[in-house]
Design a protein that fits this description.
Mean pLDDT: 78
Strand content: 5-15%
Strand order of the largest sheet: 1-2
Shape: elongated
Radius of gyration: 17 Å
Structural class: mainly alpha
Number of strands: 2
Low-confidence stretches: none
């Protein structure tokens, strides 16, 4: 529960910083940087948040996450970590595919 609240607090802080900079038009010295690099500033943290939600939902519905990838078995702490990395890479790949 604490991790979820901390994640929400970090997201709100990020939204305040990036969203506020974009909405202020040219009043902020960071405006050009944020507008030019919005996919980097918004896409990467968003991909991490989506990957976290995927892992959290799987863990909440099925308990411990265990899966096999060929001859390798992922159990215990490695299951959620590997699932998070795969989810993160999938979302970032989707962003990159959509943009590029």
């Amino acid at each position: 529960m604490l991790v979820a609240l901390l994640s929400i607090a970090i997201f709100v802080l990020w939204l305040w910083m990036v969203g506020g900079t974009v909405l202020q038009a040219n009043a902020s010295p960071w405006h050009d940087f944020v507008v030019t690099n919005f996919l980097f500033l918004g896409g990467i943290p968003g991909a991490g948040a989506i990957a976290f939600v995927v892992v959290y939902v799987f863990k909440a519905t099925d308990g411990e996450i265990e899966f096999e990838a060929g001859p390798v078995k992922f159990r215990g702490a490695s299951g959620p970590v590997v699932l998070w990395v795969l989810s993160f890479l999938a979302v970032v790949g989707g962003i990159n595919w959509h943009v590029g």
